[in-house]
# Entry
Amino acid sequence: MNRAGTLSPLPPFLVEVNHWLEGAVAFLTGFGIGGGVGLAFLNVVARFIFNIGLDWAFEVTKYLFIWSAFFGAVLCFREGCHIRVTLVLDLLPPKFQKWVQLVGEVVILLYLSIVTYFSYLFIFDPDLGVKASGEINVDVGIPMWIPYLILPIAGVLGGYFGILHLIEILMTPPEKLGRLDREMEELLE
# Structure
């Protein structure tokens, strides 16, 4: 299925990989939120009922929420849930709409590539990267490059879903692109 819930123009093996990946990202998003809420609740109970503060719980909760936010953003990117301003796009003929969407998708992929590249350098650069610095989180005792790892992971996942969307745009006739987006908006309302 594509963003509009119709049959995908993608090969069957990519549809299967995509389905599995979407499920994994959705699970990780839910796990991060649920785990963060559960751990925050446990920390509040421990602190106010038993007078024992779990110092590490705040840090782990923070990392779980951050990772779930990035995974949720990737999932929204795949599903087309992010806010878009389509006022000018809707005024164009279908053929130009397709070209504008293609250019927009390429710009998004370039942006994701740049962010992914520099986040990778931020973590793994042999001279200046967080991993090379050996910085450790005092409360949790884990290397600081591990929490930052979500940046290139989300960039790669977003790039993968962006490429799939680019393929869907290329393989969908121009007349159906605008109609499918409007149908999706009606479903979201």
Q: What stands out?
A: DSSP finds eight helices and no strands in the chain. Residues 1-6 have pLDDT under 50 and may be disordered.
